[in-house]
Amino acid sequence: LQVSHAPSQPLASNESRRFTNKHSKKALKASLTLGILLGMFFVAWLPFFVTNVAQAVCGCVPAGFFDVLTWLGYCNSTMNPIIYPLFMRDFKRAMGKFLPCCRRSAEPRPSAISLSMRNSNSGPRAATSLKNVL
């Protein structure tokens, strides 16, 4: 008796390819987002830190220029909430649940009680004793 498994193997390899492609796309998107965030961080803060070291060594940096570089770093913190929703769908969904301006009309607003119950782990529990724990 011979059992052929030939028809199921192409399906398995096809599903494997789809799984790999899906995860490689997610990994590529995650690395792109991380690269953009780190690039923005370095562009915004590196001049500040280099100038800070130069100021400590020679004291030749004008105060106004130092203030501009400090505000450039602060602008980086302003850019993060803009970058995250552009590149991360999960972040966009999470913000949509809590910010009234981003919520879709069909989505109900979670109540404060349901949020506190969800976060408090105060659901039904099995009776525990020291004997059961040990």
Kindly describe this structure.
It is a single chain. This protein is mostly helical and 134 residues long. The protein has a domain at 17-97. The chain is built from five helices and no strands. It has helices at residues 8-58, 63-87, 89-98, 112-120, 130-133.
Q: What's the short version?
A:
The chain is an all-alpha fold and 134 residues long. It is built from 5 helices and no strands.
- H/E topology pattern: HHHHH
H/I helix tally: 5
Task: Work out the number of β strands.
Answer: 0
Percent helix? over 70%
What are the key terms here?
single chain, 134 residues, mainly alpha, 5 helices, membrane, transmembrane helix, 5HT6R protein, GPCR_Rhodpsn
Q: In terms of topology, how is this protein built?
A:
Elements: H1 8-58, H2 63-87, H3 89-98, H4 112-120, H5 130-133
Helix pairs in contact: 1-2, 2-3
